[in-house]
Specification:
The chain has a 5-stranded antiparallel β-sheet with strand order 1-12-11-6-7. A 5-stranded antiparallel β-sheet has the order 2-3-4-5-10. The longest helix has 25 residues. Helix 8 runs antiparallel to helix 13. It folds into 4 domains: about 230 residues, 4-Layer Sandwich (Phosphatase 2c, domain 1); about 90 residues, Phosphorylase Kinase, domain 1 (2-Layer Sandwich), CATH 3.30.200.20; about 180 residues, Transferase(Phosphotransferase) domain 1 (Transferase(Phosphotransferase), domain 1, Orthogonal Bundle), CATH 1.10.510; about 25 residues. It is α+β, with helices and mostly antiparallel strands. The termini are far apart. It is globular, with a radius of gyration of 30 Å. The chain has 15 helices and 20 strands. About 35% of the residues lie in helices and about 20% in strands.
Amino acid sequence: MPLIVSTGHASLTGPRPRNEDFVGMAVPEGEELPVKGVLAAIADGVSGNGGGREAAEYTVRGLLTDYYAAPDTWEPALAIDRVMNAINRWVLAQGQSNPEWRGMATTLTALVLRGRRYILAHAGDTRCYLLRGGRLTQLTVDHVREQPGMQHVLTRGIGIDARLHLDFSDGELQTGDQFLLLSDGVWETLREAGLLESLKFSRAPQALASALAETALARGSHDNCSALVLRVDSLPQPGASDLNTDSRSLPALDKLKAGQGIDGYTVLNVLAESRATLLYTVRDDASGQTLVLKALHPGFARDPAEREAFAREEWLARRLLSRHFPQYVPLAAGRRTYLYFVMTWHRGQTWQQMLDAGRHFSVPEVAREGVQLLKGLAVLHRLSVLHRDIKPANVHIDQGGDLRILDFGVATSGASEDAAARAGTPSFLAPELFAGGKPGVATDLYAVAVTLYHLLTRKYPYGEIEPFQNPRFGEPAPASAQRRDTPMWLDHVLARGVARDPKQRFETAEEFILALERGELAPLAAPRATPLAERDPLLFWRTIAIIALIVNLLLLLLLLAR
């Protein structure tokens, strides 16, 4: 069952000459609902400043539009933060350039209900309350400063500072939860007792929103009165991502053979086989185009976790529109009768296939191809996607020399999380992942550095790591120790890339690219060797204890000799 939310809203001008509040919400349908969720927002334009109403309306309308236009792979908090900082810059610019709107500003409280969680973003003194089990809880904190002889002054809001700092919070949803988004004209008049009194009647959300605004005015509010009410009527099942409903309904394919037909495709050959998936080259019988068909391995046909991972990979493939990746091929409705998806095919080889064939990569090639790989990874990171399995077998070069990153089977994004922190290939996993750390940009960049190191030397900086092994990481072997023609500048770049401490690595793909492109013209300094006390504190203190024991024994022998 999907997330179902009932909503209501009201915004009354009251005794003020104009209504400077603005409310809005969006309840999407189809795939957008589990990916983006329901969004509701309330804004209260700063009274006394020109353009208060305009600031409030532009803020809410802009958020509702641009949030749903942001990449699906962004987490809601990231999407809201980036959208709202852009809106904040616009409001500031209008307030500075238009004399009628000088000082325009507004508060904002925005709520996203997605899956089984809520995400709240807030700046100013509009408020969000949660009614659960008869108990009313204020979820926001007012950003105000009391000024003697004046009403409270906003310390945070849209159009106040050049950099907008929103408060973010989140939590689990429960069926029956009611969220109230209120302007100060309502909450300041009714207070908690008045809100609870209105809620006792268990009205439908629309009736309740109207009652809150009307009751506040009836009890003497001197401000605009606005209310948004959202009630959670049903929640999706725990663990159901709804990234692709076909993953739970379509049957898995048996292993296919050359010449076999499936849904208007003819199998040409088995391209690759991994633990959980199979890749085939196929010909589209209608167009004659050669494509790649990716299917779940029949051995995992009844494994819910593997079907969910496969659905997540397809979901990502549909959204990665870049020359750095194979492109997803959409199918006509009803054509697909089995669990698989189709991508573009490019004649060429992976780096691993080239290495296996005895290919020797020169230093300029490693640097040049490393830049291309990092440009593709930078695209992923801008979309908040972590690949988590960068290695030579997942980097493909076509006959035209274009590079593509393959296999998103363990990739994660803001809209799809995988609890397995150590997913990937052991020899390319960063040290912190073996210690229970979380994957991130730093772990992807580490894998790139190990990949380039392996391309250059056919070895690994910390030695090969077998599955289920818990290795100890000392100092990495310099690439120049494995291959003498490695220039010092590249040695230093790779050493920084594979540093044991994530803080000593490159922070972004772009920084890594710059180091490779500058090369010997602007070489990096030699990396600092990690002291034993930092690298292995237990071994360090054991060594100190042993040395102290030896010294004490020698002193004891000297005393006895006298």
